[in-house]
Structure formats: C-alpha cells, structure tokens
Design goal:
The protein is α+β, with helices and mostly antiparallel strands and 210 residues long. Strands 2-1-3-4 form a four-stranded mixed beta sheet. The longest helix is centred in the middle third of the chain and has 20 residues. The chain is globular and about 50 Å long. It starts with a helix and ends in a 5-residue tail after the last helix. The mean pLDDT is 91.
C-alpha cells in the first residue's frame, strides 16, 4: 500500500527544515514553529489537547505546550517526522492514511504557500484520488458553515453536494485544490467558482474548515 500520509509527512518536514522555525504559514498567527508544535501535540500529547478544553488542566496543558514549543528546531521537526507513537491506532497504515493524509498535505501547503514565489506542485494521481476520497467523506463537516449551497467537483473524480442550500456555488479544480478551498485556504486554492456573484462573495467571506 502506498503511504501518502508518510510521503507528505516527510515532505512537510523537509520544507520545515528549509524554511526554519520563524517562517509564516497560512494558519493565522502561526509560525512554522507553532504549526510543528500543533502537530506534535495532536499526535503525542492528548493530555495537552484535552487540557486546552478543561479549565482544571489548563496549567498542565500550558506547561506541556511550552516544553514542546521551546524544543530545538531540529528536535521538534524530528518529532513530527517520527509520526504517531506506537501505542496509537494511527501507527497502523490504514488508520494513518485515513487520519493524516489530508492533515499532512494541507499543513505542508500552509507552509509552502505562505512563502514568496510559491507554485503549485504536481502530485501523484494516487494522492489526488486519496485526497478526493477524504474530502468526500468529510465534505459536510468542513462546509457546515457555508451560507449557501456548495457542490465540490474534481474532473475525473466526481462531484459531491457538500452543503445543501440555495443558491449553489460550484467549486471545481483538482482534488488537492478543492480540498485547500474547503479547508479554508480560499485565497491560495486554485479553483474555479461558478454561481451567482453574491453567493460566491458570501461563501468567500465565511471561515471554512474543520
């Protein structure tokens, strides 16, 4: 089985090392160090993730986050590169593909497309298919805040109604680009929007994504 999640993880880590810890990203307010910290906490420190939601664990969560954030840059990127711990289901290939392919791809582009002179990179057909499968499964979740109807279309892959409503805006492009749009990277996603101009403006004005 091709491991696209692992491929994107490795590519993301290479890009992180190239850009350094203080480069901008498409995640508002986050540097590359903040993004790497997020990925490590997401996979390795569920206690810190839960602590951000529970007031009585807030101090613990803050301390864990600070330790991860303040690690040396090479150690922090190495922690991202090492992937999910052995004790998590995501260590299994099929689970890793389901949980992390889109996550690693989108965050890789968060780094790449925040840098001057970026260009969309060619992706393997299999990765495009995997991203489209992920998007179809999660389309209603990521488009739940859409103020209009939304249809997502990728020539050669299909079309899915992501949000019911009227009027409808059709978002068309490569699966990778449609995913970036649906995950809130609308200004950098290379997609075509078809529909009433007012509906397109309303869709672009809303913060989309998980």
């Amino acid at each position: 089985m091709t491991r696209y999640a692992q491929d994107e993880r490795r590519a993301l880590c290479d890009t992180l090392l190239d850009t350094g810890p203080d480069a901008p990203t498409l995640c508002e307010g986050w540097t590359t160090r903040d993004l790497a910290t997020h990925l490590v906490l997401r996979e390795r420190r569920p206690d810190a993730q839960i602590g951000q939601l529970l007031p009585f664990l807030a101090d613990h969560a803050a301390a864990v986050t600070a330790r991860v954030h303040d690690a040396s840059w090479t150690d922090l990127v190495a922690a991202v590169r090492s992937g999910p711990p052995r004790w998590t289901p995501a260590r299994l290939g099929v689970v890793d593909e389901a949980m992390n392919t889109a996550e690693m791809f989108v965050h890789h582009e968060d780094v790449r497309r925040a840098q001057p002179g970026w260009a969309a990179r060619p992706l393997p057909d299999g990765l495009q298919t995997s991203l489209w499968r992920n998007l179809r499964l999660g389309a209603r979740l990521v488009l739940r805040k859409a103020p209009v109807g939304v249809a997502l279309a990728a020539p050669g892959h299909g079309e899915v109604v992501a949000h019911r409503g009227s009027p409808v805006v059709r978002v068309e492009g490569l699966p990778s680009e449609v995913m970036l749009f649906a995950f809130g990277r609308r200004d950098q996603a290379q997609v075509r929007l078809d529909g009433p101009l007012d509906a397109i403006d309303r869709l672009r004005a809303v913060r989309l994504g998980p």
